[in-house]
């Protein structure tokens, strides 16, 4: 047994059937319509369809299969972008995920560095304030000492 194509009256494939290996050629399929003679409604084509055809159609004049598409249409199909396989999609998503994780890590490091810089600036500011406070306390002690001396001198000298 071998596969054979069933074609409509325009010689386009509508179905497939099995035929005996010895069967060859074009076999008309007929049906009887009430009040009329038998009428051909399709054909069985026993010739094998050549590989690589996109829309095979039976060429009645030459007795061969031909492609209904033009060479330009076939070339457009061949050059059409192929959909990604699940494996390709997974690999792409994994790559994007790694890129995203690296970007997040970089932002985290930059934020940590910025925080460390801000913390150092805060420490430097506090140290500066502590130093200024010590200077102020020293000046206050000097002022108190000088005030005490002035008062002592004024009391010894009888006041001015």
Description:
This is Bacteriophage SP-beta YorD domain-containing protein. The protein is an alpha+beta fold. The chain has two domains: 2-69, no CATH class; 83-160. The chain contains two helices and six strands. The strands form two sheets. Strands 2-1-4-3 form a four-stranded antiparallel beta sheet, with no helix packed on it. The model has no long low-confidence stretch (mean pLDDT 90).
Rg calculated over all Cα atoms = 49 Å
Number of strands: 6
Could you describe the largest sheet, including whether it forms a barrel?
Answer: 4 strands, antiparallel
Number of domains: 2
Query: Count the helices. How many?
Result: 2
Spell out the helices and strands N to C. EEEEEEHH
| Residue share in helix | 40-55%
Estimated share of beta-strand residues = 15-25%
* Strands in their spatial order, largest beta sheet: 2-1-4-3
Q: What's the pLDDT, averaged over the residues?
A: 90
How far apart are the termini? 140 Å
Structural class designation: alpha+beta
Low-confidence stretches: none
Outline type = rod-shaped
Protein name: Bacteriophage SP-beta YorD domain-containing protein
Question: Outline of this structure?
Answer:
This protein is of the alpha+beta class and 160 residues long.
Topology:
Layout: E1 2-7, E2 13-19, E3 26-32, E4 38-45, E5 56-59, E6 64-67, H1 71-79, H2 86-156
Antiparallel strand pairs: 1-2, 1-4, 3-4, 5-6
List the keywords.
alpha+beta; four-stranded antiparallel beta sheet; 6 strands; 160 residues; 22% strand; 2 helices; two-stranded antiparallel sheet
């Amino acid at each position: 047994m071998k596969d054979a194509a069933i074609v409509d009256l325009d010689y386009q494939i509508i179905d497939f059937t099995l035929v005996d290996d010895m069967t060859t050629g074009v076999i008309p399929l007929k049906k009887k319509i009430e009040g009329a003679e038998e009428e051909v409604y399709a054909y069985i084509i026993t010739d094998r369809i050549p590989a690589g055809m996109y829309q095979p159609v039976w060429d009645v004049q030459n007795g061969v299969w031909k492609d209904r598409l033009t060479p330009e249409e076939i070339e457009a199909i061949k050059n059409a972008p192929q959909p990604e396989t699940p494996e390709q999609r997974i690999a792409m998503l994994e790559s994007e995920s790694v890129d995203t994780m690296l970007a997040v890590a970089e932002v985290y490091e930059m934020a940590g560095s910025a925080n460390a810089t801000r913390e150092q600036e805060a420490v430097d500011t506090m140290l500066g304030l502590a130093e200024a406070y010590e200077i102020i306390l020293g000046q206050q002690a000097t002022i108190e000492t000088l005030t005490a001396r002035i008062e002592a001198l004024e009391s010894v000298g009888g006041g001015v």
